[in-house]
Give the backbone structure.
Amino acid sequence: MSKIIFSALVVITAAFFTACNTEGGQSCSREPDIIDEVTFNLMDESFKADFRIWKLEINENYRESALGQNQKLYENLFQFVKKYCISKNITFENQLMAVVLYYDLPLSESLCVNDEHIKGISLYEVRWYRIIHRLYVRNERADFVEEENVKVAVPYITANHINFYLENYVFTASRNKSDIVIWSDLAMKVEKNSWRYSLTPMRFEVKPKKDRIMNSDE
């Protein structure tokens, strides 16, 4: 299974919601490489917010991971991105607490998020004391289609989960890509009761994809 083991260089992008789940024993947290304003140009509207951006090398690929800097602005950004998801016919089954955008460019190059470069969206919903992950991937018609195989309950949002979905479901080549984590005020409430959610076993998929099983010994 060597090809799906995650690099120890993954950074933690938020205390509880991207809890460290790496292998190798290295530190999972460090200061961001960039803190700058990012402009979201979606639905003929714009929204600006400061983001922390980490530059990473994961599985020998250059990548970036971004997390908002100002929680007061963050709820407004979250609602803006949620509105974008609705505009793309993405549905919510439960209360939505966080969104991860999988972006087809290094975010630091333009500090701008446009619709055409968003290739996948992870949703993290809350149902009772369970966090449910759902993933939508853009198809050749530019529609977002749900991947049912990764609709699983998770104890928290980890950097490794994000990398797994980016590398194995959203992009065929994960070099020069970004993930952008956006969470809501609800996520902060969940964090205060994190022990209730952490009882859920760690899981990535309903069942492993056949192509990864076939290549597991390579």
